[in-house]
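so im writing up the methods section and need the Dehydrogenase record in one place, dumping it here so i stop losing it
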Amino acid sequence: MANLRAGLIGLGMMGRHHARVLGSLEGVDLVAVADPGGDVHQVAGGRPVYESIEQLIEHGIDYCMVAVPTIHHEPIGLALAEAGVHAMIEKPLAQDTASAERLAKAFDDRGLIGATGHIERYNPALQQARARLEAGELGDVYQVATRRQGPFPARIADVGVVKDLGTHDIDLTAWVTQQNYTSVSARTAHKSGRQYEDLVAVVGQLTNGTVTSHLVNWLSPLKERITIITGERGTLIADTLTADLTYYANGNVATTWAGIAQFRGVTEGDVIRYAIAKPEPLRVEHENFRDAVLGKDADIVTMEQGSGTVRVAEACLESARSSTTIVLAPSS
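--- predicted struct ---
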């Protein structure tokens, strides 16, 4: 069987990593790349470098990775759908809910595989956390709290921190718990003089009553990517920078020393940092999309799911603008 012919549009900071993985992915040939600004990171490796999606389609591709600025996702995605080309589009799927829904419908109407590049789902720590939640190891999930902060990336100019970084936490929280958001209340700040917000704090609730909180900013010298999942039997902490997963079990040994009990609070149980395999999330993401295109069992983030994440992100922004809690109607 011939290898799939893949194309890549967008050769910036993320595009160069996609080029590296696609160029070495089993069963796939990266046949051409495109970027109106040229191959600034020298990743083409002798392949043709085009300026437009139309030229890339004309070259002949089975599927395309789209890693351009968010504002361009919809026109490029619709052009690929019209040409019958499967596509994975970097997150967020689009700049607003209406655009994201149009993309999802275009690929679905044509029977094409369309995916959103929410890479955190493929982080080994979160993959393990999801499996352990499914196995009931934590019991009922009470709360998911995330912290995602670090310095401002100058390359992001068309969306704020909610849609760029916050969509990671929205997606991973819904996915790891297998619940949807029912409400969000958010506050934002503009501290760096840019058009868009650079800090957000969100409190939300999920379908089964799980409470969520997300702290996200581009203002901290500390780079942090932490997900804390608290349930009836203990707490899982996933550090997606190091792909470590640690379990803090509730204890069943009473603390009789009053001073320690007052200081420590609840009874502590065992603490386990799991030894887990740590494949590169980006490669796992591409392997799953390749398999989906081939019609094999695969775990991809569908465009419908990507559209739902944009919808929640926009609800967060509306909550911040209106200083109200936004109730999210069930997805259609």
